[in-house]
Amino acid sequence: MSLLKVENLQAKIEDNQILKGLNLEVNPGEVHAIMGPNGSGKSTLASVIAGREDYEINGGRILFEGEDITDLEVHERAQKGIFLAFQYPVEIPGVSNANFMKSSVNAIREARGEEPLSAKDFLARMREKSALVEIDKSFMSRAVNEGFSGGEKKRNEIFQLAMLEPKLALLDETDSGLDIDALKIVSQGVNTLRNENNAFVLITHYQRLLNYIVPDFVHVLADGKIVKSGGKELALELEEKGYDWVKDHAIEEQTA
Amino acid sequence: MTDFNEDKLIEEVTTSDYKYGFTTDIEQEFAPKGLNEDIVRFISAKKEEPEFMLEWRLKAYRHWLTMKDPMWAKVDFPKIDYQDVYYYAAPKKKPQLDSLDEVDPELLKTFEKLGISIDEQKRLTGVAVDIVVDSVSVKTTFQKQLKEMGVIFCPMSEAVKEHPELVKQYLGSVVPTTDNFYAALNSAVFSDGSFCYIPKGVRCPMELSTYFRMNAALTGQFERTLIIADEGSYVSYLEGCTAPMRDENQLHAAVVEIVAHKDAEVKYSTVQNWYPGDKNGKGGVYNFVTKRGLCEGENSKISWTQVETGSSITWKYPSCVLKGDNSIGEFYSVAVTNNFQQADTGSKMTHIGKNTRSRIISKGISAGRSENSYRGLVNITKNAKNARNFSECDSLLIGDKCGAHTFPYIEIGNSSSVVEHEATTSKVSEDILFYCSQRGMDEAQAMELIINGYAKEVLNKLPMEFAVEAQKLLAISLEGSVG
């Protein structure tokens, strides 16, 4: 059974139809990259899978481990193991990273009928996972993302990913705004976390990230649909020929 | 996918039922309804007061007759008919003080529902509790231990009889009987309250605590509290309240006076959770409180911390008069209003001595259709050289039908002083809720986290055991999950 199956998904915001019949299947152990020009619907796809209600789904459905989750609430999807690394993580004044993560970890545990993590185990896990993305100890008592640099915010997203160990991680342009060092740290974190039971969907504008996190599949999204899929070499080809090549290619295929 | 529907959030937030809505059946002894000199005499006689107290009350009453209700606050409610209020009610059976077995079992049940087990308080927490039901103190604990240190902690009615010289000297010295309409009313008819004296150089080893609870329909509650910290002493005082659900509005006009002598420090913490009225704005407590501390001596310090979630109308400005040189006044407040609640609250800092410092941190949270106002006065007099004040007033809005207002008044009488004022207004954004929700938290959990984060600076000032209660209270007041 596939982990994630997106079937003919159509979504709009106000009168603007953004996803126009998108199909995607992700199996455990796989890393998928979704590339495409600005405005093609990449971030919308991530938000809709996570359940953000700004978007209206007006066709198709989303299956997670075979279950139709199209109508589930955001936290219910999160509790099932869907994680979204935000493109623009929000700041939460007064709430420490430690407190935030404790609420998050325990909410998910509670939903699964597990006991809350003891303070000792929780701290040990914080320490272990923060090392993964080279986060300093003082970070734990700082307010969530408040006063963080762009790179720190993105590292924090990967840290949270490590803490929650989701089955499916959606990384929404995690590479944007990262310098090369931060990009390496984030990539190493992801590479350490990937295993045969989980899956990653990397949403990115640039091929650069894929030098560090090597995908099994690359999809090109244009005008609300996946217009081309292939292996990792597709990303290089795109980098060389530009998105227009795929768009033209797609039109040719449609008209042929 | 309705998780981030704001209307739904507002609806949920505003339909949380009052958790402590219940009443107990304790036989009441009422004074007849209404107010005149005979009622004042009745109250004084009931309490077997010495003559000077009766005279004091009558003077206050006569002055009250010449005064009018204050109308300047940003609160709106029907005019109160003061002749339609009971001014005295006491449990008929006055329990013995030796053993809990002798306390009315109904009363004990009430405490249990509130989560106040006297027994547990005694055994586990080391908090001395002076519990007030309606108007009469029924249980005072740890008195013996305190006595050995020279600390006096007793009901006001007892202090009037046992320590008349202290009462004569200090009662009304910070809040005169003529101070304002509600203070004058309180002075005339106050039923009971707490009295606390910390002798020179004594550091009170435990948090002194009073739980108030109104428990009779149509009963006014007029508490009078007086705290005196003599030279070099320290005390931390806690006041916490809940009230049962009632349809009739209940009038409450308390007065708290604090005197801090040279090098003394007083911390006064309040968690206020009186019945706020139902979700349609029916019922609820009118809370008209006068709280003021006098930093009489050099290097003295008075700190007010309050978490206000209850009452339908709040009119309350805990203040400090900084008379002694180098004295310090602080005010830390979280005020939550929901549904149709209205709060006009803040602080007054009057700088008289040199190098006096004050700090005001006010966090307002408005939800439902409520109105939440901060009103503050920083008054630096001519002789208060090098005085400093810092004020921060933050407002958090939940939904778009509530209001937040800030009325800061600043008067500076000299050029060597520094006054800073910061104010922010923010909304609980859908982006933050989405972020929390994506990390697995439901709406209630997310709100609790966000609200407690927002109010952290104030909650941190509360004593540990109170901070936990206050966090729960904030969550209960703003979420639909607890009914």
Describe this structure in words.
The complex is a heterodimer of chains A (256) and B (483). Chain A is of the alpha/beta class and 256 residues long. Chain A has a single domain, classed as Rossmann fold (3-Layer(aba) Sandwich). Chain A is built from nine helices and twelve strands. In chain A, α2 crosses α3 (97-111), α4 (119-132) crosses α5 and α5 (150-164) packs parallel to α6. Chain A is globular. Chain B has one domain (6-478). Chain B is 25% helix and 33% strand. Chain B has 13 helices and 24 strands. Chain B has helices at residues 6-14, 37-46, 51-65, 105-114, 118-125, 143-148, 156-162, 164-170, 181-189, 430-438, 443-454, 456-459, 464-478; strands at 28-30, 89-91, 128-133, 136-140, 152-155, 194-198, 208-213, 224-229, 234-242, 250-252, 255-260, 265-273, 285-295, 301-308, 313-316, 319-322, 328-337, 342-345, 348-351, 357-366, 371-380, 388-397, 403-412, 418-427. The A-B interface holds A 50-54, 57, 71-75, 78-79, 83-84, 86, 89-90, 92-95, 99-100, 103-104, 107-108, 111, 143, 160, 164 and B 1-5, 429, 431-432, 434-443, 445, 449-450, 452-457.
Present the secondary structure layout.
The complex is a heterodimer of chains A (256) and B (483).
Chain A: E1 4-13, E2 16-26, E3 31-35, H1 42-50, E4 56-64, E5 67-68, H2 74-80, E6 82-85, E7 92-96, H3 97-111, H4 119-132, E8 143-144, H5 150-164, E9 168-172, H6 180-193, E10 199-204, H7 209-212, E11 217-222, E12 225-230, H8 233-241, H9 243-255
Parallel strand pairs in A: 3-10, 3-11, 6-9, 9-10
Antiparallel strand pairs in A: 1-2, 1-4, 4-5, 7-8, 11-12
Chain B: H1 6-14, E1 28-30, H2 37-46, H3 51-65, E2 89-91, H4 105-114, H5 118-125, E3 128-133, E4 136-140, H6 143-148, E5 152-155, H7 156-162, H8 164-170, H9 181-189, E6 194-198, E7 208-213, E8 224-229, E9 234-242, E10 250-252, E11 255-260, E12 265-273, E13 285-295, E14 301-308, E15 313-316, E16 319-322, E17 328-337, E18 342-345, E19 348-351, E20 357-366, E21 371-380, E22 388-397, E23 403-412, E24 418-427, H10 430-438, H11 443-454, H12 456-459, H13 464-478
Parallel strand pairs in B: 3-7, 6-8, 7-9, 8-11, 9-12, 10-13, 11-13, 12-14, 13-15, 13-16, 14-17, 15-18, 16-19, 17-20, 18-21, 19-21, 20-22, 21-23, 22-24
Antiparallel strand pairs in B: 1-2, 3-4, 5-6
Helix pairs in contact in B: 2-3, 3-9, 7-8, 10-11, 11-13
